[in-house]
Amino acid sequence: MQAAGGAGEALDRAGDGDGGDHAAAGAADRGGDRADALLALADGLGPAAAADGREGGRLELGAAQPAVHPVGLLPGEQDLRGGPGGHREGGADGDGVAQAAGALGGGDADADVALPAEQRGALAGVVAQLGEDRLRDGEQAVLAGGDGELGEPRPEDEAALGIAVDEAVVLQRDGEPVGRGAGEAGGLHELRERGGTGLQRVQHENRFVKYADSARVVHVLILPSRNLRCKSGGPDRGATARRTIMTGEVGVMGRTLAEKVYDAHVVRRAEGEPDLLYIDLHLVHEVTSPQAFDGLRMAGRQVRRPDLTIATEDHNVPTTDLLMPIADPVSRTQVETLRKNCSDFGIRLHPMGDDGQGIVHVIGPQLGLTQPGMTVVCGDSHTSTHGAFGALAFGIGTSEVEHVLATQTLPQIQPKTMAVTVDGELPDGVTAKDLILAIIAKIGTGGGQGHIIEYRGEAIRSLSMEGRMTVCNMSIEAGARAGMIAPDETTFEYLKGRPNAPQGADWDKAVEYWTSLRTDDDAVFDTEVVIDAAELTPFVTWGTNPGQGLPLGESVPDPAAIDDPVKRQNAERALEYMGLTAGTPLRDIKVDTVFVGSCTNGRIEDLRAVAGVLEGRKVADGVRMLVVPGSMKVKQQAEQEGLDQVISASGAEWREAGCSMCLAMNPDKLTPGERSASTSNRNFEGRQGPGGRTHLVSPAVAAATAVTGRLAAPADL
Ligand SMILES: CC(C)[C@H](C(=O)O)[C@@H](O)C(=O)O
Ligand code: SF4
User: What PANTHER family does the database record attribute to this sequence (predicted)?
Assistant: First the structure.
């Protein structure tokens, strides 16, 4: 199924690789995806409970579940629409599809059926695991294993791990419901006795059985063998794992951070099919959403969780004259379409000129919406940025955007895991951008393919949140599905007090849970790479992909010296396009333009670094420098700190927030042959304008380059 978004797949994105011809790409997208989108939706709706409780009726996910979040700090409790209510006002549409009440909220049934506390108590508990007693203080044993003998689970029953007493539960066991027998706590009989409203029995053809409080769940509990399945590879992973457990050859293995977050969001898993993942946060922008909304309209659907969906205008917005209508008709149409869609479907939008507007990957973290342990998606490949918080965040195609809008879930094939460990300390003057460029040069643009990369090690721990976002942002440039960094004090410090961050007791609970989001010591990664931070220096690209980079002190490589014929040919072609000669010292390369901005390096720390270098200096004659904050808030903060003054005094242009020259979907473009040093993340042919030549650099290198007019580091000044 194409819409499953397999690991490492290219997105069905518009406007990529075509020099910004997004209108044409959008049309192709529209034509190509329709059937797949419908397919995906049908699949997505398959396994779970009918929201209206009709057994055997149309199968749907549980009604208006809050986002899956073990500590109950639900993104669903943050109503992104800003209005009263949120998901608790949800209703069901004519198809039994639960809908949060928004502008178009249909139906008046309250689909968000909360279980009375005593029923939840009856459900929640712990199953003794493979004969071991796993009860801890405050936990209660409720689910019997095997044939109902408490404490005697059969290995194949794979009893679930501990559940806090106040959590909602999915009871699951292969082939039959757990806790079904008379007298067994948590059995359906008991729920019925107590009036069990909101619980449905769901039996899937793949013998995946749940009793679910459909109003609250739907976590599939973490099963020990799940991890083994993940490790054994191939479609028969489950069978292999089970055999292994039964013969007692291996114990339960630890899990990686990525596996923990992934597992915690699986709402349905069936042999031979993609998993269905619950999505906690859906970010939307003008480029990849129009066809998705059109699809909803065509199918008569609404947005299932407008309260977990937030939109911003970023790609097509100009960075000057915000009060003027957008001159370019394609950009204007994109932006106007997003406005209409958000208004029709009840989605909070940050339009141009709004205080909260900015690049989608800058505003999510800024608003405290991106939190550890979440699943975050957006029709944008650099969604990997949000992995810096320990969220599982990845880009999706337009058909998948429609799927998430309609169901708040996404079919996924579980990616493999990769550790990139950066030992030691980054030398002075070496930044997160240099680090990620060096990582990509080392592992290649396909090095992370099929994997979620977890960045670890001392050098990563020492990075600020801004630096971590820069690193995770470019995971996609290494071909990875996502990048993640385990949350720690730096993460909590960044989040604390942000508008959507938990508060008070919720905050403490959240931090406790977030602290558990780290790779277990005995977890095994599918692939591991180790890098010594001490060896790194400022890094720049010389070619037309982000992996064609070298330390600034080196020279343009000679393709003739490259053994691999494909790489050699790529290098030849890149040098020709870039107008470079082998052997030229990188420091001798003259630039025409310097661009500071983008979701890679448009944050406050980046602007501080730039102003730090520019202070008391001038941009070289003949060089134009654009400094584009990643969001309006970043812009305001920079202005409060006086950074704009320093930047303007140096001769650089201080602009409004947006993607800008990162991809040239607005008037900020390179002209043919023009060469830039750019803090963005992509350097393919025409990325910054047809014929434009891009060198990817850090903010500090960008600023030093602006001063000298040639690729340079601050230490060269
Ligand atoms: C327009 C969008 C789909 C695209 C992406 O997916 O990344 C853009 O943001 C980019 O950086 O090329
Ligand atoms: S700033 Fe660049 S990379 Fe980031 S979302 Fe915008 S276009 Fe994509």
Answer: 3-ISOPROPYLMALATE DEHYDRATASE, HOMOACONITASE, MITOCHONDRIAL-RELATED
Give me the interface pTM, i.e. the ipTM.
0.99
458 lies in the same domain as 599: no
| Residue 342 labeled ligand binder | no
Q: In the prediction, which pLDDT does 323 show?
A: 86
Q: Are residues 599 and 659 in the same domain?
A: yes
Ligand 2, residue 682: give the atom nearest the CA: 3
Q: Which domain holds residue 525?
A: 414-539
Residues 486 and 579 in one domain: no
Please give the distance, rounded to the nearest whole angstrom, from the Cα atom of residue 597 to the centre of ligand 2.
9
Q: Are residues 424 and 533 in the same domain?
A: yes
Ligand nearest to the CA of 602: 2
* Number of other CB atoms surrounding residue 382 within 10 Å: 28
Q: What is the pLDDT of residue 80?
A: 53
Dist. CA 384 → ligand 1 center (Å): 12
pLDDT at position 22? 32
* Below-50 pLDDT ranges, the chain: 1-79, 81-251
Span 498-554, pLDDT tens digits: 999 999 999 999 999 999 999 999 999 999 999 999 999 999 999 999 999 999 999
Q: Is 22 in the pocket of ligand 2 (CB under 6 A)?
A: no
Q: How far is the CA of 688 from the centre of ligand 2 (A)?
A: 11
Residue 683 in contact with ligand 1 by CB distance below 6 A: no
Long-range contacts, 272-276 (Cβ 8 Å, 24+): 272/235, 273/1, 273/43, 273/206, 273/411, 274/1, 274/4, 274/5, 274/6, 274/43, 274/411, 274/412, 274/413, 275/411, 275/412, 275/413, 275/414, 276/43, 276/44, 276/47, 276/409, 276/410, 276/411, 276/412
Distance CA 451, CA 431 (A): 24
Could you read off the pLDDT of 83-108 as tens digits, one per residue? 322 332 233 333 322 222 222 222 22
- Our answer on whether the CB atom of 16 is closer than 6 Å to any ligand 1 atom is yes
